[in-house]
Every structure is written in structure tokens, then in C-alpha cells.
Amino acid sequence: MIAANDERVNLHMARAHAAIALEGAEKEACREEIRALLKARNAVLVAHYYTHPDVQQLAEDTGGCVSDSLQMARFGKDHAADMLVVAGVRFMGETAKILSPEKRIVMPTLEATCSLDVGCPIEEFGPFCDAHPDRTVVVYANTSAAVKARADWVVTSSIAVDLVDYLDRRGEKILFAPDKHLGHYVQQQTGADMLHWDGACVVHEEFKAQGILDLKKVHPDAAVLVHPESPAAVIEIADAVGSTTQLIAAARRLPNPVFIVATDQGIFHKMQQEAPGKTFIAAPTAGNGAACRSCAHCPWMAMNGLDNLRAVLRADDALGQEIHVDPELGRRAMLPLERMVNFRR
Ligand code: SF4
Asked: Is the CB of 115 under 6 A from ligand 1?
């Protein structure tokens, strides 16, 4: 299964390509046109922290939202717009559609996927769940609509520890998928009885503890911020571990002037806004001189840009980049997703 998963992920990575970068007057004209198109279509832009700073800035400037996947889901569900333009990866668009079936959900490109989603196909995950009927199925938001529909709960990294702790206190045993590093971190934090799927994020899995320790020698006053999709050895040396939103809060809160950050570099835009004057350095990935697959930047998040965002808004048919979810599947996935959205709100 591991080899098959690697092969599937590599195929998708080979197809990923960064969005066209616009500069100067061309960029400004594009921003203005998108602004007008959002208004004309009664649409709102919902962007993830890992997207390009230009996309994040435009979302903020047009009354949209820049956030983690939990807040994106909540914002999109609560917003009165007819259309949500989701800049991120495909599962985020699907989540928005399931939670708001009456809205049109479009994305700059539907090709933007996630290695966790790709590595957890329902054809394999369904039988895995069937083999463990005594376990409560908790899946990460980074999964397909079909996998969510098979789950009891959906979580994001911002609530995974609290939710599993809550289920553990109720005496429930957990089947957790697909990120094994997040799953092991949650298990270590809660002591819950957990069975893990063997998935990983291509970005976070590459961070190296030794590289971070070497970098700390150069920056002894630096704090290390780590997303829990990273390997255990990296989490162990962190000063703060958490979701993207929690890491941004740590950058603001901690007194250190320098931060070594083990998550996608797209987050630096928001960190610099929230903690001006501080320095952010990407945590080393594949070790000295070695090639990395992601180099601390998600190849699929990088597919979102102003140019393809404008293109889907210009066309009445969104150039085919509209999310559709089978209504029956959506109905089944709605329950665990709504549990996530409403958990300790
Ligand atoms: S950064 Fe990792 S978890 Fe996030 S979308 Fe990219 S591959 Fe998936």
C-alpha cells in the first residue's frame, strides 16, 4: 500500500505547476478586475494561509477570508454570498460545497490536490474501517468527500487534540486517518487508544530535526514553530506545536526575534503582518545538499494565482473549475463535517 500511495502522490506532483506570476501594472489590473468580478457575481474569496501572498492580500482587501481550513469552512458556510471562490486545494472546495450545497463553489484549479487526500482512497479506506467496527472513525479534513462520508468525525489540526481527548474521555477507541504524524502527536498528547492510517504530507514530512538544530546554532535566540504533520523528532524540539492559526499566534506571543518555521512558507505573509519586525526562516527540509520534494512549499497550493482566479470568474461556466459533489455523498459527509464546524465553537 505504501508503494502504491507514493506512486499516486508522485504522479500528482509531476502534474503540479506553479501559477503564472503577474507583476507591476498587469498585476494591478488583474486585481481590479477580480475585485469587480467578485462584486458582479456576488462572490467572496476564501484563501488558505499557504497560498501566494497576492491571493491572500486580495482576499483580505475584498472582504474575504485568509485562514486555516477550519475557519475557511466556517466562514464559507456562514457567508451570504452566492458563490465561494476557494483558493487552496481541492478538499477545501469540496468541504465548502458539502456545507453549502446551495452555493456555487469554484476554484482557480481543480488540479490542486493534497498528498494526504491522494494517499487515502475510499476503495482502501472503506475496508480498513470495516475491519475495525469497534472504533470511532476520525478523519482529517484533508480527505475526499467519500472518505468524509465514511467517518464519524472530521477534524482539522486546530481541534484534533481536543476532539480526540473528548472522545477518549467518553471511552471511545479511535481510528485516525490519514496523517500518521498528526495521529501519533494526538495520541501522545491524549493517551487515547488510536489506530493510524499510513499517510503523510509531502511538505511537513521533509522537515529534519538535525537541520533545525544546526540552524539554531546560527540563531541561538530563535524559537522553533512546528506544525504537527511533521515527524516526531521535529515536534520534539519545537517551542510551539500547532495548526497554522496557532503557529501565527505563537509568533505574535513569544518574545523571540527570530523563528524557525516548520510549515509551508506561504504562512510567512500572515506571520510578518501579525508580528512585524520579527524574522522568519524556513526550517531545513531534506538535509545538507540533498534534493527535497517540496522545499517547504506545497506544490498544489502554489497552483493558485491571480491569473487563473480571474479566468474562472470571467467565464460563466468557470472553465469547468466548479466543485460538484454527489448529493447523496454530500448528505452523508455533512454530519461529520458539521460536528467539526460546531465543535467548541
Ligand atoms: S501542505 Fe501538505 S497537507 Fe497541506 S495541502 Fe499541501 S500536501 Fe496537503
From this structure: yes
